[in-house]
Amino acid sequence: MNPSALELGLAACHTCNKVSNVKTHHCPRCGTHLHPRKPDSLARCLAFGITGILAYIPANLLPIMLVTQLGTEEKSTILGGVATFWEMKAYPVAITIFIASVMIPGLKFVALGILCGAASGKIEINPRIANRMYYLTELVGRWSMVDVFVVAILVGLIQMGNLMSIEPGAAAIAFGLMVILTMLSAHAFDPKLIWDRLRQSDPNSTSP
Ligand SMILES: [Zn+2]
User: Fold this and answer.
1) How far is the CA of 182 from the centre of ligand 1 (A)?
2) Which of these, 108, 114, 78, lies nearest to 179 by C-alpha position?
3) Which residues surround ligand 1, an ion (CB under 5 A)?
4) pTM
5) Do 79 and 47 sit in the same domain of this protein?
């Protein structure tokens, strides 16, 4: 059985990837603090994730956009916006907003929950699938900001004084917070924990 880097007392630097002895505490090349695994990874991943879910609720229930047109004010939630675009037969826009703002954040919470479960040994999942899930979760992070970008662009473009104006609603803040919290949650997760778990159950496998 090949020993893992952790068992040999080695750790890779998070900044420059240089592998050195854990006992040196700081990377000899760039000075970054060395940890064999991200400290309190699961606790931080869960804390950011749960706070993110709490922000997901107002992000979907409160209005994301306030449109004032000829003195009448209209509030629209994310799903309300999707329905409006659908009725206007702007199907690609409606589908894009629905996928980016409702579906992807929801799936991200599920994926992070499964990853934390797998790393703590509560859920049995193929480590290769878990690893792919982790990289996808990190990758899609910024794309779930589409809704905030759309509102920001509309606010900048449509300011016609008394005729028509668009302002971001309270949901925009909750939405931005939710995206940042899910990104922090994914970043706090240490995928090496999945391989550690596999090694404990099957000592003949190799782990980084
Ligand atoms: Zn370094």
Assistant:
1) 26
2) 108
3) 13, 15-16, 18, 27, 29-30, 32
4) 0.79
5) yes
User: Do 51 and 25 reside in the same domain of the chain?
Assistant: no
CA distance 11 to 194: 17
| Contact call for residues 37 and 45 (beta carbons, < 8 A) | no
Q: How many angstroms is it from 200 CA to the middle of ligand 1? A: 29
What is the total count of domains within the chain?
Answer: 2
- The DSSP 8-state label assigned to residue 145 in this structure reads G
Segment 9-42, tens digit of pLDDT:
888 888 888 898 888 888 999 988 888 888 899 9
Residues 48 and 30 in one domain: no
Using the mean position of ligand 1's atoms as its centre, give its distance from the Cα of residue 111 in Å: 30
Q: Based on the domain organization, do 100 and 15 belong to the same domain?
A: no
Please tell me the distance between residue 21's alpha carbon and the centre of ligand 1 in angstroms. 12
